[in-house]
Amino acid sequence: MNRKVDILIKDAKIIDGTGRRAYRGNVAIDKGCIARVGNTSQLTGNHQINAKNKIITPGFIDCHTHDDRVLLDDPDMTNKITQGVTTVIAGNCGISLSPFLPGDWEMPIPMPLLGKKNQYCFPSFSDYIRAFNSSPPALNAAFLCGHNTLRAEAMKGDIDRCAEQNEIDQMQEKIRESILHGAIGLSSGLMYPAGFAAPTSEVTALAAEAGRLGGLYATHLRNEAEGLIKSVEEAAEIGRKGNLPVILSHHKVTGRPNWGDTKISLRKIERLAESQTIHLDAYPYTASATALMPERLQIAEEILIVSSEKHPEKTGKYLTEIAKEWGISKIKAAQKLLPAQAIYFAMDEGDVRRVLTHDLTMIGSDGIPGTKFPHPRLWGTFPRVLGYYSREVGLFPLETAIHKMTGLTAKVFGFRNRGVLRKGAIADIAVFDPTTVIDRADFSAPKQRSAGIDHVIVNGEIVLENGIRTSARPGRVIEREA
Ligand SMILES: [Zn+2]
Predict the structure, then answer these.
(1) What are the pLDDT digits (tens) for 161-214?
(2) How far is the CA of 351 from the centre of ligand 1 (A)?
(3) How many CB atoms lie within 10 A of CB 298?
(4) Which of the chain's termini has less CB crowding within 10 Å, N or C?
(5) How far, in Å, is the centroid of ligand 1 from the Cα of 280?
(6) Domains of the chain, start order
């Protein structure tokens, strides 16, 4: 007699997330989990999906995001769901929305990337989790605790110095509270004003506390230009002394004179990986995006304005153009636009490809939501890796591309039973057309939905069907099981 399961996906090509070659088969989903993979005879689905000529894979894990606030404010998460993403990792680059309570001092850069003062309203991580669970988003999320957030609060905005012992104690206490309530580790953003004055010893003391509780350390390096190699060494030292795994965020080298230096950084990382756990994430573009910092203009070939509080009419325009229009220098124009966000065209395609193909590299969008004119990575990262870099450029086989978004990421972050398509795993799934999948968002129209992603399932519930969003919001907080 035929047994009924919740969902049966038929006639697909299965890429299971481990890096193993694709094979044909069916996938049965029942009670939130994968009930069977391969031959599903004797099973019928309450809901059946015909996936002929399509690929079925584990849902993608976006391991580098700044989605802390948007998960609460816009829980449909359409920009990610339509890319096949089923889990995001928030709290990167040293900025997390919690635990933090603003004071009567100005929030340092880069904290405004996540929200205004009144939007930082979660003094403890458990407050944030309560808000998340009271109105869950469409996809799963895991959270890092941000060093910049912690130190801005502990030092009451007086961040241009190293922290005193009592301030380090306070930060450690917050890390404990966060990890005990489900955070997966510590992030830092040492390039930013909020973190730059922190000596290695300060970060190590915090990383050690995270490590003691089973967390990991993800870092936006102190310098991604001429100081790249020294910064990689610093991150590795923090990992060794803190006794915890390290993830080098959005690995790249910026500034034309430094192009090509990823050859050296990757060799260095390979050597480090022989004796400690270290991985990378990267996004598939030659432009970065963050706060507009006039002192950093020289690293970029060109700068595109994403937002400006004082001159919103300049959104989507190039700085060169704006400076010309105003008849002033680019530095002066940048100062006039502050506070603002910008896209920096500062990388070389060769470096981007070298990092993407490296065995230790996972895919993370680094997308920054909440502006009218975001970097296109927010809407396009995953289909771009699949459609452009794998299919069109031939940078790596589809199986490798998918491993970098699923199995590898789940393993590095300690997400047990996710990131792989096998019996018993949790049913986070994407079904896409390998011949049409592609990003459509670009630097002139950055909020375009990608093509070719057909079905997305989160925790066994369909959130995208035939390219159309359902109303389901089955997302959960995912913890690290090291
Ligand atoms: Zn960053």
Answers:
(1) 999 999 999 999 999 999 999 999 999 999 999 999 999 999 999 999 999 999
(2) 17
(3) 11
(4) N
(5) 12
(6) 3-58+421-469 (2.30.40.10), 60-285+346-413 (3.20.20.140), 287-345 (3.30.1490.130)
